[in-house]
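User: Here's a structure from my thesis project, written as structure tokens. My advisor, Dr. K., wants to see whether a designed sequence matches the one we expressed. Can you design one independently, without my sequence as a hint?
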């Protein structure tokens, strides 16, 4: 049975089930009821209203097992499962329905005491150390059971003070941890929260990696909580664990050798990853036996140099810069210890296919009875001069014609050709500009020709050449500066235009335009989602500014 036939048959069967079935409980085993979910009731007002609402949601989501899923308010998968029954054959409609359905979740599978322990622990993780919970079942006349939990939260504990403990045996790492105290997340007055403690450990880990501690981990941090000081407050003591921490975790790591494999393949014959084939260039070891890439593109993209102190931001920025060059499909790095303090770095780069061909075709209609078509074909070379330059050849053409109406408008035909070259760094005469941002800048050279004909009225020939730069300041902002733009437009009026005494020269510019342009783009829709009280349509902004300088 084909996938389409199965899909159609499943939909038709599902429709029959919905029409014919009205109950999810009539096929249950004797003495059993259907578990339909949980109900959380907060019995006191010790916690703020917002916290009570969040806690109810979290507690309800923690109850196990989960009830049967719903679609459009109905337990369709359960109905499908029950409709199929116990198939007598291994193949056919009923086995297919049984496989795609859901067996009933019985109330007897819900352990109230186990769930109570889970929910109490969850509340304690939020700082409610004196939570009490009363669990019970509630079953209606239709044999549907709800697991009910009456919760008394008690007061929520807050942070009295946070202390970073010093370790005299490892004074350097203790000093570096203590230097991050002004940025601590465990502020006095904040509610106790286990997730906040985990976030603080991750913050310290990241801060230490910024200071060169490559081998340090968040698990090496322990936060001891003293709940005995009274007045529903806690003291927190942050320290490095005394055990399970290797010696190298206390050492600042330095970059030793840097190896780059620009033609890495998962199933390589080993030639492209053999260190013996490496060529040294400004402290980098480039393993590129086929010499497909110029070594200098890696020294511009990778921020690490031999002898540098390890830094997490430099690691992530280097990877991002290699990706935004546009030549490599997959980029990853590996760090191998040479000793307790030195690291060898390996960059594995898998390039895109060097050349690709793209063809596009489209149609258009307008409200003045005009229709047309547009087509283009483009050839992309991603490594034209072995420096990760992207060269695009593009040819496009199209037409517009009026297919009805009394007021006949001229048919329009256009044909164009364009060549674009993108170089992944700034090319400025007599100046060598080195950048360290997370995005690689691009130098752009564009040349284009466009021909347009409007029946027997006129012909327009336009030539354009641009030289400029494109760079991103951040995730949402982008700049384009073209210091040089040259445009030449030549219009030829034909016989019909002269007979109609139309002065197209007054309508269409003829001549040369020279001048720089600048474009700024800000897009608020890119990036992590942000909470807002505004409707979605009002919570996005695309700002584009262009000017002729």
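Assistant: Designed independently from the structure alone:
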């Amino acid at each position: 049975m084909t996938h389409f036939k199965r899909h159609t048959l499943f939909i038709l069967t599902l429709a029959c089930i919905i029409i014919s079935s009205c109950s999810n409980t009539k096929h249950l085993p004797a003495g059993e009821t259907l578990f339909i979910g949980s109900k959380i009731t907060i019995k006191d007002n010790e916690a703020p209203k917002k916290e009570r609402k969040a806690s109810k949601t979290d507690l309800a989501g923690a109850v196990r097992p989960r009830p049967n899923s719903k679609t459009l308010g109905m337990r369709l998968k359960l109905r499908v499962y029950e409709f199929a029954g116990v198939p007598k054959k291994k193949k056919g409609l009923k086995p297919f329905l049984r496989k795609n359905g859901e067996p009933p979740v019985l109330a007897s599978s819900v352990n109230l005491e186990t769930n109570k322990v889970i929910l109490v622990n969850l509340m304690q993780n939020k700082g409610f150390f004196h939570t009490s919970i009363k669990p019970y079942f509630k079953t209606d006349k239709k044999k549907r059971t709800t697991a009910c939990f009456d919760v008394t939260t008690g007061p929520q504990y807050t942070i009295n003070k946070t202390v970073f403990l010093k370790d005299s045996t490892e004074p350097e790492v203790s000093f570096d941890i203590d230097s991050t105290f002004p940025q601590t997340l465990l502020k006095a007055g904040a509610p106790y929260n286990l997730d906040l403690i985990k976030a603080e450990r991750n913050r310290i880990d990241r801060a230490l990696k910024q200071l060169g501690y490559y081998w340090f981990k968040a698990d090496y941090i322990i936060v001891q909580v003293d709940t005995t000081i009274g007045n529903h407050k806690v003291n927190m003591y942050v320290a490095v664990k005394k055990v399970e921490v290797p010696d190298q975790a206390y050492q600042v790591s330095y970059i030793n050798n840097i190896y780059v494999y620009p033609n890495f393949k998962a199933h390589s014959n080993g030639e492209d990853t053999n260190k013996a084939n490496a060529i040294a260039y400004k402290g980098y070891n480039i393993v590129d036996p086929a010499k497909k890439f110029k070594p200098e593109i890696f020294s511009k993209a990778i921020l690490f140099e031999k002898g540098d102190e390890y830094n997490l931001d430099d690691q992530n920025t280097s990877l991002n810069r290699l990706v935004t060059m546009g030549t490599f499909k997959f980029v990853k790095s590996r760090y191998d210890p040479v000793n307790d303090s030195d690291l060898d770095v390996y960059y594995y780069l898998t390039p895109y296919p060097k050349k690709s061909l793209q063809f596009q075709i489209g149609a258009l209609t307008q409200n003045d009875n005009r229709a047309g078509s547009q087509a283009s074909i483009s050839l992309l070379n991603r490594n034209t001069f072995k420096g990760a330059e992207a060269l695009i050849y593009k040819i496009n053409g199209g037409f517009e014609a009026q297919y009805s109406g009394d007021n006949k408008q001229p048919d329009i035909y256009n044909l164009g050709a364009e060549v674009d070259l993108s170089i992944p760094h700034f090319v400025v005469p007599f100046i060598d500009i080195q950048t360290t941002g997370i995005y690689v800048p691009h130098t752009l050279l564009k040349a284009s020709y466009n021909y347009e004909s409007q029946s027997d009225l006129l012909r327009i020939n336009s030539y354009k050449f641009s030289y400029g730069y494109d760079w991103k300041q951040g995730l949402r902002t982008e700049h384009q500066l073209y210091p040089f733009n040259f445009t030449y437009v030549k219009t030829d009026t034909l016989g019909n235009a002269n007979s109609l005494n139309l002065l197209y020269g007054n309508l269409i510019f003829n001549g040369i335009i020279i001048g720089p342009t600048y474009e700024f783009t800000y897009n608020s829709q890119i990036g992590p989602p942000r909470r807002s009280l505004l409707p979605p349509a009002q919570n996005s902004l695309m700002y584009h500014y262009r000017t002729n300088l």
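When you compare it with your expressed construct, this may help: The CA atoms of residues 206 and 312 lie 8 Å apart.
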